[in-house]
């Protein structure tokens, strides 16, 4: 049973620093996630930014925690996470939060 709290939009965002010489590979891996992730059920926003200092900033908004969990369990994400450590310098700096500002609704 889905609770009202489970339907509150959540965000996941953070920075990834490529290892020296790995920026191009990491950029491609991250870009390859964008369109498929946007097609996953519950994806409201999915953006990749590249900072002036070479870090990548990923920003995602999901309709609910359940949708984010389903996305994270896909083979696409599991394969990405398995390959990620060899291309990043240190651990990803990641943040998760429940959106407290209203998210615009769309009429279908």
What can you see in these coordinates?
The model has no long low-confidence stretch (mean pLDDT 91). The two termini are 24 Å apart. The chain has one domain: Alpha-Beta Plaits (2-Layer Sandwich). A hairpin with a 5-residue loop joins strand 2 and strand 3. The longest helix is centred in the N-terminal third of the chain and has 17 residues. The protein has a 4-stranded antiparallel beta sheet with strand order 2-3-1-4. Helices cover 31% and strands 26% of the residues. It has 3 helices and 4 strands. 15% of the residues are buried. The protein is an alpha+beta fold. Keywords: Monooxygenase, Oxidoreductase. This is Quinol monooxygenase YgiN. One of its GO terms (molecular function) is monooxygenase activity. It comes from Streptoalloteichus hindustanus. InterPro entries: ABM_dom, Dimeric_a/b-barrel.
List keywords for this structure.
single chain, about 110 residues, alpha+beta, Alpha-Beta Plaits, 4-stranded antiparallel β-sheet, globular
User: Distance between the terminal alpha carbons, to the nearest Å?
Assistant: 24 Å
Assembly annotation: single chain
With strands numbered from the N-terminus, the spatial order across the biggest sheet is 2-3-1-4
- H/E topology pattern: EHEEHHE
CATH architecture: 2-Layer Sandwich
Total individual domains: 1
What low-confidence regions span 5 or more consecutive residues with pLDDT below 50? none
Major pleated sheet: 4 strands, antiparallel
Put the structure in a nutshell.
This protein has 108 residues and is of the alpha+beta class. The chain has helices spanning 23-39, 65-72, 75-83; strands at residues 10-16, 43-50, 56-62, 93-98.
